[in-house]
Amino acid sequence: MTRLMLGRTLERICKGVLLLCLLHFLIMMILYFDVYSQRFDLFSRFNNGRNGSRSNVSGAGSGHHYYYYNLSRPNATLASYLATGEQLVPSVQPENTQTPSPKPLPPCPESPPGLVGRLLIEFSSQMTMERVQKENPNVTEGGRYTPPDCRPRWKVAIIIPFRHRENHLKYWLHYLHPILRRQKIDYGIYIINQLGEDTFNRAKLLNVGYTEALKDAEYDCFIFSDVDLIPMDDRNLYHCYDQPRHFAIAMDKFGFRLPYAGYFGGVSGLSKKQFLKINGFPNEYWGWGGEDDDIYNRITLNGMKVSRPDVRIGRYRMIKHERDKHNEPNPQRFNKIQNTKNTMKKDGISSLTYRLVQVRKYPLYTNISVEIGKPPPRPIKG
Q1: For residue 33, which of 86, 183, 350, 353 sits 20 to 30 Å off, Cα-Cα?
Q2: Catalytic amino acids?
């Protein structure tokens, strides 16, 4: 009896051990197939990427693309992969076709490092437009230039009143283009040509230049220069300042001294805001003289002051020439100067009239030809 009970007990123990071994075997098989399926899935993904890239190449001409799906995972079906968008996309990363945006330019330095200081200015050598153009290959059509390596504060229009001064213009362009480029100026040059042989009107031409330049670009600074004046120092920077600027303070014809305290002739500069504040320049100064003094009065009467460079920097050479015909001294200039306060509100950019005849862009400048009318008849003395 005891032996029978012991045998049954051993039989139960053996069955339990056998069941445990079978359970262990099943668990090991499950784990084995799970690991195997994961490794097979990784291999399948790799093949899908390769096959996807191949289909992009070989199927490009035919318009067909072939995709491969991994169905080795448990419960994996084609429908489940169709529901998962990422499985349908080849693993090849798309190329970045966007070009990186350029870095913003730094502001131009207040004192550009390329300046040389005092210059040797002479007018004895023969000058041609072809030579000047070869000297300035970076100047674009219309006499425009922008520094490629920095961002200037001002956009400058340089206005030159003009008639029958072609030889002077060659020298002016020869010297000024290199100076302005060294100064890191964003500029355009505008020659305002008075057509006909009526009396010359410098200030009215300057008003025309202001108006026409703004049609060409959004300038905020205007330099007004006679065509026969060349700066002798490139540290005399051609841009605008907090106050209206008088550049030509020491001409050779005046012994390199300011002729009088209120002198504002030759070369001057005003910002757009300053120019509009004084209603531009007078239109009724026909002939030589007086308009620059009127402009000086407009500046002071509107609460501004004239700023000037150091006398050692503001030196200029003038190209010698005879006085132009039809630009005789204006006998009415002294009376007009005394009445600036009464006339500046109604005589200026707000009352400007002219007829635009032609705008032509040359490699080194923009030529604007205009008709500005005739002076009113002078009162008969009696």
Answers
A1: 86
A2: 226, 228, 288, 291-292, 318, 321, 323
